[in-house]
Amino acid sequence: MKQILLLFFSFCIVSFTNAQDIQSLTISPSNPTTSDPITVTAVVDNFPWGNCDASSHSFTQNVWRIDGQAYHQLGGLAVICSSTDYFPIGTYAAGTYWYVHTVTSSSGGMDVDSVQFTVTTTTGIDDHSGMHIANVYPQPASDRLFIDILDNGINNSLFELLDASGRLILSEQINSSTIIHVGELSRGLYFYRVGNAAQHQMGKLILD
Question: Which residues, listed in sequence order, are joined to residue 179 by a DSSP beta bridge?
Answer without folding.
Answer: 146
